[in-house]
Amino acid sequence: MKTILVLNMGMKSIRSIIFDTTGSKLASSFIPIETSLRGETVTQLPSEWWEKAGIVIRETLADAGNIHIDYLTVTSSSSCLVCVDENGEALMPCMMVSDKRAREESSFIGSLDAFAEVKARTGGNASPSFMLPKALWVKFHEKEIYHKTYKLLAPNDYLAAKFTGRYVTDYINAHKWYYDVQKKQYPSQLLQEIGISEQLLPEVVTPGTKIGTITESAARHTGLSMETSVILSTYDAICSFVGSGVVREGTASDVSGTVTVFRAASEKKLDHIGSRIQQQPYYEGGFHIIGGSNNMGGGLIEWVKQCYYQNETLPYELMEKDAGEASLGGGGVIFLPYLLGERAPLWDSDARGVFFGLERMHTRKEMTRAVFESTGFIDLDMIAAIEEAGLKIDTIRLSGGLARINLISQIKADITGRQIQVLSEFETTATGAAMMALYGQRVYSSLYEAAEHFVKVRMVINPDRRNHEKYKELYYLYKETYHTLKPLFVKRMAITDRLYSQKRIRIENL
After folding, report:
1. For a surface tag, which of 98, 405, 417, 442 has the fewest beta carbons within 10 Å of its beta carbon?
2. CA distances to 102, 123, 191, 205 from 252, in Å
3. Are 463 and 414 a contacting pair, CB within 8 Å?
């Protein structure tokens, strides 16, 4: 029986998980990663990823009895920019997906005629969260670093290069560069207009492709065999979709780790997708993947823990207890969950978090309840955008850290009015990466066969219809609060840019 090790580089930790081809998890380990925040700047150190990858892989191998690993695949967050020199060493901290320094560059790109054609073909947004605006920011603001840059990579591209010495990416990741999957090409005209050489971008291959074996130096660093094959999967959001086992139209996956990734499968390409969500071709079965990711999901719960439950022995259990004791709607408290601005479906980098409706009688119970409920409103926002594009959703498959909190799962069912299927394996990003890699190597004949081994439903939750009716009114208030405050968010950003010199903060997670 063959084995695969998945290295999952998340927003707050790096994980190593070993599976066999029956879908059984043989061993796993993780280690936190530090994030630096300074105003609009959100970065991590690629050198830390590689150092800790060696630690976490060795720990996992030891736990599994130092068995031989046949395959390795790496997944990570998308739209995080790593600039490397000719030796594959990072030249600056990685600009993470929620880094918003490239505001002006994204606006400039969005104003170009060449981008209008690119957007029509790829559905990509002119947003600071995409790769090309970030690269343009480096060109304008870090000229010396840009001059030394040999390749512009995503985190999993960077780590794959560390393992193999090759600079490659998959075409789903390349979409963040506005890569045209049908034409199999980068946007050459747009790149030419903004003066970024296509030679800086990695070679594009199909997910599931073997790109090499472990180099001697990587074997020394990690303890892996030089015979281990390195297989490309793709970025975490798509891997988690695959790992949720969504195989029919009408079912969506909600994977809420640090961020919430919400996507659904469509049997046909949607003609009126708009700009609020994204559409990507699925690389098997003719499906298209519809949806997007926001900036905060489980990260909201971590923030609540840091603010109100930091000294508690069992913080998550107490949070759930407090929120359960608060009334539906938090006694009139609405929370806007935009602590780092928002990506899909708002695409508003100025938006910020707000507690609306606080009264003297309210305590941390009501505030925690409001944060819990905001995770359901996030899902409903995504469903509204997807259904507006022409795809109906009736079932949601739930995984990620938030799926461990049963009250949040019930709240999501009540707010959305959809059946929730909680998966047995919370780490669907890792299972999806394994499934894609093993299918690519023809261990399985299809992703459907892979899902039969890897994906199981642990619990089914149906919505409480009376609660759903109450949440309809609260959702209206939630939306109205955001739209009313939207112009004030812009004014606030202008004022804070003038007044404050933000200090660098190092934290273990978002």
Report:
1. 442
2. 31, 20, 34, 27
3. yes
Cα distance between residue 71 and residue 4, in whole Å: 5
Q: How many CB atoms lie within 10 A of CB 162?
A: 23
- Report CA-CA distances (Å) from 77 to 7, 19, 154, 261, 325: 12, 21, 8, 11, 35
Flag whether pLDDT at 283 surpasses 80: no
Q: Are 318 and 218 in a shared domain?
A: no
Phi-psi category of residue 444: left, alpha or beta, with phi > 0 → left and psi -120 to 50 → alpha: beta
pLDDT tens digits for range 299-334 = 999 999 999 999 999 999 999 999 999 999 999 999
Q: Which residues contact 357 (CB under 8 A, 6 or more apart)?
A: 330, 332, 333, 334
Q: Can you give the pTM of this predicted structure?
A: 0.89
**Token representation of residue 207:** 């997910």
How high is the pLDDT of residue 286? 73
Q: What type of residue sits at position 293?
A: S
Amino acid at 107: S
pLDDT at 205: 96
CATH label of the domain that carries residue 114: 3.30.420.40
Q: pLDDT tens digits, residue range 415-436?
A: 999 999 999 999 999 999 999 9
Q: What is the CA radius of gyration of the chain?
A: 22
CA distance 322 to 489: 30
Dig out the tokens for 104 from the structure. 């002006």
Rounded percentage of the chain residues whose pLDDT exceeds 90 = 86
Nearest residue to 132 (alpha-carbon basis) of 161, 148, 112:
112
Domain boundary among 203, 234, 265: 234
- What is the rounded CA–CA span in Å between residue 274 and residue 317? 40
- Supply 42's token pair: 């959100």
Pull the structure tokens for residue 414. 């009540």
Residues 6+ apart with CB under 8 A from 319: 301, 304, 305, 309, 368, 405
Phi, psi of 356 (to 5 degrees): -115, 130
Is residue 448 in some structural domain?
Answer: no
Strand runs labelled E in 294-369: 334-336, 354-356
Asked, for residue 104, whether it belongs to a domain, the answer is: yes
